[in-house]
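ERR on first pass: missing label on line 2. Operator R.T. fixed the label and resubmitted. Corrected input:
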Amino acid sequence: MNLTMNKDVQTPPSAGQPVSAPNPAASRPAAAPAPAAGPAFEVKDLNLWYGTHRAVQDVTLQIPARQVTAIIGPSGCGKSTFLRTLNRMHELTPGAYHTGTILMDGRDLYGPGTDPTVVRRRVGMVFQKSNPFPTMSVAENVLAGLRLNGVRDKALLRERLEKSLRMAALWDEVKDHLHKSGISLSGGQQQRLCIARALAVRPEILLMDEPCSALDPIATAKVEELIHEIKREYTIVIVTHNMQQAARCSDRTAFFYMGKLIEYAETQQIFMNPSNPQTEAYVSGRFG
Amino acid sequence: MTNDPVPAFPPHMKRFFDAELETFRSHLILMGETAASQVRAAIKALVDSNASLADQVIAADDELDQLEIKIDEEAMRYMNLRAPVATELRLVIVGMKASHDLERVGDEATSIAKRAVRLSAEPPLKPYVDIPRMANIALEMLRDALDCFLNGDTAKALAVCRRDAEVDSINKQLYRELTSFMIEKPGTISRAIELMFISKSLERIADHATNIAEEMIYLAKGKDVRHSEEVKKNGSVA
Amino acid sequence: MTDEHNHRLRRLKNTGMNALFVLCAILVVSPLGFVIFHLVREGASAVNLDFFIHLPKPVGQPGGGMGNAIAGTFELLALASLIGVPVGVLGGIFLAEYGGERLNGWVRFWADVLNGTPSIVWGMVAYSLVVLPMKGFSAYAGGLALGFIMIPLVLRTTEEVLVLVPRSYREAALALGLERWKMIAQIVLPIALRGIITGILLAMGRIAGETAPLLFTAFGNNFWSHHLAEPIAALPLQIFAYAISPYDDWHRQAWAGALVLVLLILGLSIGVRLLAGQKRSPN
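pass 2 clean. output:
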């Protein structure tokens, strides 16, 4: 399994990039403007069951590329579950299955020819609780995805290490401790390390499942700053309990309640002038 | 003003939306400059009987209206999405109020310009002395209020509040003068009424300048000095 | 009045219970202390360098040692590990990571049954599988018998340790686009490694003292054995043989062997404690 080969198959080199580039994944232009791309995800009539419990009900929405989409809603509303359908993580839960379609760049995410491991390389994920691999150093954590997928090119690894840590706004804090254990960092640093680890494999989309719920306000501000920075290159979908965070970071916001998508609109609209009374009640803190 | 050894706070952290606040501030400053120059131009058009300059003033009012809308949108967006607190919250609230005052200043300038157009067709009733003097005071008040916004100098803003009375008294004096004109020569009535309204407009502009000064004191100190003669006379805010 | 009375009564009860618990704790600890004390008293005099490097001497000759039996025990442990570790670890991985609910239930049940099987039965199994076809007792047979005993022990500890690895690490690995086997081999196993080694050491400690399965597999040998296909000496066998002999010399040697065996197992246990006790960060 070779990462670069998959990248070749999945993303045709954009214009201006030689087709025979030795390593398109490595040289993917950093600030390539979105070539008027269609939505990153098109979700149609998605239902998700855990056994007999329907956790997501008839959700249809489009997630725009290179924007931040926030998903808000009370606990148990299906927002995390929905997020996990976007990189097929829900398939790891025994008894979970879905109906409906999800298209990523127009291709069926669950189509017979789509390999979930390839999907997950294109759609990275950051979890609620920071989870650096405890047996690995800071550098090994960042490069875990690349190394274990067979990348051996030392120069490329070194470049990705620094770039990913810089993007995660962690480089200056850890550059002298790259060989220290990943779990020796502070909570906020660990979470940014996990973000760097997810970014190192160069996904196109980053899913974030309540990435700041365990962080203090300063660490949270750093992560939000980072989200703002990387949205030029990445499509970001963030699940959050913190409505202020959704308001601050996102371009569009989806409100889920009892597994249903209640309202989905520009963030400004959701918080200023929601069209659904349930949304209004939730964002003004009257239920949920 | 405390001598307790408070541990050093980490250096000010930039936030990705700080730029929004900067834009908001600069729009407000631009609006203040525009409103002041509108008043200046309207008075010049009146004094010089320059109808085309007056027309320019009338046409330019739209700029101020658009700025007010923009500032309101930015303020609402910021309050909606960024949940400002403390100084930022005061800035956003004060910005919305001040932009409204400045828009009204612009309206008064337009009104003066309209009257200047009509007056330019007739010979001057008398040499314009008091009106430019009033205008100068009103413009100085406006400038001082905006200076307080730029550099937080509340002493100047307090002085603005006190000077309002000066403008009021000139206005009253002009009223009496113009009334006597009208009694003596009914042929001057239409021109005198225009001038009375212009005087009233300038008085209003001074009122708006006072409002803005009060708002800027609130922004800088968090103290509401409206309708508090004591503070204004003492000339200092704690 | 009554308050004070109650208070005194309570204190009395409390003291009584405390004393009871201390007594129980002493009862738990004392057998080990007693055994070691007894072993040292009876056998320590025979434990010296000779004991570790020399062969047993014929009856009547003073001195001699159990060098061959000690070496044999280690050889048997190594042979048993060759069978027990791979099968047990892989089986544990299967249980923890693959396998369906139903299948796992059965495998676990069988592992528990195997675990409960008397060790002499394993001796018989190895006897019929190895000794009869090879027409002779051998180290292979002894190793196989001990390996059989090791499998369920290693399997269950491996499974338990793997299940304890937090789900979040697996998810993080899979979210990086790793295949499942890579996730297991590169992420989960290193995290669980210490626990797995602890399980293996515990299993080795358990089989090091087994005698019954060796009686008709390894059989015992009074000389250095240079070939795994031949009968081999082992500490428990040697102790057994010496202890049932009528000679005082040999009794003393048996005590010494028992002391060495207990110390060996104690050493393994201490190693386990050291490994397991090293605090990993709360993750």
